[in-house]
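>> received
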Amino acid sequence: MNPPLTNPNNHPDWIAPHSLDWYAQLANLTGEYVYPWRSTIAEPNGESLFTQEVACMVQNKKVLDIGCGHGDFTLHWAAEASEIVGVDVTNRFVQSAKERTQPNVSFVISNTKEPLPFAEGEFDCAYNRKGPTSAYLHCKQVIKAGGQILGLHPADLLFAELPEWFPDLFEPHPSGTPILDLLQDRLRQASFSYVDIESVTSTEYILSPLDVIKLRCFGQQPCVTEMAIAQHLESVQRIFDQHTTVNGLPVTFAHYFVRVIV
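>> returned
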């Protein structure tokens, strides 16, 4: 019989995901914000739809990228925007981004829980690709009146099946819609002239049991991942085989797509 699954956050080196310490650790470990698990995502999905709308929005505009990480998505638009500035709180990510910058692209360290270090109405538009929702409370001041802001954020149903299939390895999803409630509250506080939140759901297919563990331990020290693999890979394999398809393990790929007019 396989041993019961346990939560890897019991490891002494575990850091709460998406905390400032976690981002700093991830940046020091890899220098970039890149998912370590292998998967495919059915189209259409929130990521692809968001990218399409950003492509239309940034043409010949001065653009603010909120939560830019190591800058890959920022640099992608260098040839489209007249100027683009990426903002992130994690110093190591920003330094990595600056190593590859282009003449019309720059990067700034800033905590979006505080007023942004830009002039009033400095930008034509902005986007927030899975960055901090706290930014909405401050970015209104630096975007021109009538300017557009696009946002993409993980939804409450993201990977909803994993706690059910892998109890204890994954923490249970909270009841209700706490992510949506917080997002709505921050957008309400910002008092934009127009706000729309669309829920976009697709399917992500995780390709192997090892990828399930890598997803759970994303951003943690290698010793945390190694412990989870040693203790749980056999049990995860058994559960994975019960639910997988020819495409991989199907889990909900859900995002909130925010469209705002300042």
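>> The mean pLDDT is 96.
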